[in-house]
Design goal:
The structure is a homotetramer of 234-residue chains. Chain A has 234 residues and is of the alpha/beta class. Helices cover 41% and strands 16% of the residues of chain A. Chain A has a six-stranded parallel sheet, sandwiched between helices.
């Protein structure tokens, strides 16, 4: 398969869809609010580094996602914005255990590959290491909101806007964005900082997201917004 | 744009992705459980009939989704399986009301088009009209589980498997499936009974769903399963 | 039983408990925030008027709860604060229906007494009738947050504080307050506007709430706060 | 205050309430289902051992709760029933951190006393130490269900009944039970295995729970049920 052909063909489909959507009042801009949080989804070693079933596209990771995240983190830290580093692991990664905390997800994908006992797997990538006062939140399902205290946490911080990065576009990033909107937050997806591991998936998921669930914005736009917006008093 | 070209190109991308997914242990089969429920998402007039911003692909609706749903309903009713007809509407569909029950979703898509005061908009399509003992559940967000009693309801009925149909693949069906899996239910997406309103969206969303969140199965397969599986005693 | 003796004895227990709580750092004040919402729980006819299994203490209702609510509503309406009128009813109030939307709650209490088909049961009491732009939210469980869009709705309105009234102290009010705090909202319980139907229940539930989950404040204090706090621009 | 007087007076109030409740159809029995889980709430050192603000009544703990839990655990382990050990701790237990994962709860009670960095605080009491295949679930709020994957986890295990123990009656046990019922599970509270730290609180909370949210049953009854009920195949 030619990836160039895939991209061109997808772009044609997106253009045709955009025409329909715009005629009907979809693809509106939700905009940035007054108090943002950066939600970084599964940028932990099992996803960011080689050698795991969950390893994502390494060129994209090293050349776009990590450098983009470094710029976003720097902007958040200057202004003391909320940052949440989300990761995923299981206490009982044994598919034969009928009571595994993987629930049913291992019946679709290889969740047994992230064992809580091996911290190197679920630790946030050292290139974007959390600071002590940044929340490292463990989840068990795809969405960062589902079965976690995230929505209540963000409300208690006064957050009204989530800026979402990470992997994968198909699963944990998309479900996080959909839930975030439903939970009452303005939703921004950072174009360069969302990855996946199969061809086309980033493109079509960002297209769906931009049409219905979040504004897809560049790192530059997000950094400019974060830098000019006051965070919590130091 | 040629839709045939789109389909062929997407199929190439899916094939390439499937190779990667299968090497890594994705795309497993979750299987049917012992006690199913049919969850029919937004097959209400604003989505199934012409003339609304939410109107979906009418050929697909009339020729595949509705006839498929009729067969699924018949099989469920024979065995007294749980059926939930999900629909969506707003008490305050005024975008200038800062306290509208649309939340923030109208900032992305035209939710103001489904006014609770006009029952004809959110009423389930008469071709698949609910029976009195089938739950017609109103939701406000994309997912049938988010901000609704659905997960608790299904657990109280003893349900372990959800068979999901409706519109749209991009939004309410996909989020329902992702949440259903996270909430501990076996998840089945009915191939012919899931629609949308833009080119390619059904194909790529079903592909993502089948790879990570639910088994995509035909109406025939689902009907056969429903017919042979005992439901509640009459 | 002498109710005066009950009250005196409970007060002794509360005093002894308060000593322990205060030594250990419990019973802190959470305080009012910047953007309140009034959450009025189950002040619908089945609870506020005579003749239903859910009917609450009528003296308290007529002399304190309704008059207090009228003052709170007036203050909210002057400033355009968010008001949510919560009520409860069931589409399938038949205990023999294995798929009833009552879930399992009818296995403990007579939920079958609020039939969705009889609007007079679940309609908000006419003495505190909702205005058109005030959200009338139907719930199925005790908590106003559980299985409803309330948390996301309030976040989308920018609300950071919930002022809770209604019935009963034991069930729907207490669970609403506990969930509201967990969902990230400052929680205020209005002393005169919370009722029940059995002796002692208001006293001990308000005591527990004040110790751990919300500040219990008078109508006067809440009205003064609501009047001086700016709501949404008209 | 005389505790004997408190107990006698509360019993009078309960008797008067029971009369009202029974006339109206409250205080029904929900009963045990077919597939139980034992949910043990906050029986970690900060609550079970002396010296912490959260320390509970030590006589009750040592003489009733821990011995009762040992019998319940033994019965569960014989039959391979689901056991969940719930505990609570915070990554950022600093009240001056505006982004603490304590959310707003520290504004009411001293949550800063359970620091995630000090495992001795939140570790489950060694007298009822978890086995490797029993889920040790960290929560941040009162309810074991709120902001956790518990409901989905239990559904994925096929559980239909939760047997709840732990501390405190006022907060984490009561909210867990209320949420469990709302999430569709049959709810059983184990009389001898639920504690608190102030006089009367266990009595009135168990009374409210028994009247509306769960059956209060003895250890003997629960052990007999657990022993005769088949769990997961080994």
């Amino acid at each position: 398969m030619s990836l160039e052909n895939l991209e061109a063909t997808l772009q044609e489909a997106f253009d045709a869809s955009t025409k329909i959507y715009e005629e009907r009042g979809f693809r509106r801009r939700i905009g940035f609010g007054k108090k943002p949080a950066l939600i970084s989804v599964d940028l932990a070693n099992a996803w960011t580094r080689p050698g795991n079933p969950f390893t994502c596209d390494q060129d994209k990771m090293d050349q776009e996602i990590i450098p983009g995240m470094q710029r976003l983190l720097e902007a958040c830290r200057k202004q003391n914005h909320v940052v949440v580093h989300v990761t995923t692991a299981y206490q009982m990664p044994d598919r034969n255990n009928p009571h595994t905390d993987m629930g049913l997800w291992h019946c679709k994908i290889p969740m047994e590959a992230v064992d809580l006992a091996d911290e190197s797997l679920w630790q946030i990538d050292s290139r974007i290491a959390p600071l002590d006062h940044e929340y490292v939140m463990m989840k068990k399902r795809a969405s960062s909101f589902h079965g976690t205290p995230l929505a209540g946490y963000l409300r208690s911080c006064g957050v009204d806007t989530i800026i979402v990065t990470g992997v994968t576009a198909t699963a944990c990033v998309r479900t996080t964005i959909c839930d975030g909107l439903a939970d009452g937050f303005r939703t921004i997806a950072v174009r360069e900082c969302i990855g996946d591991r199969v061809p086309g998936a980033v493109a079509w998921n960002l297209y769906d997201i931009d049409s219905k669930f979040a504004d897809v914005e560049t790192v530059d736009t997000c950094v400019a917004y974060l830098e000019k917006t006051p965070g919590a008093a130091a």
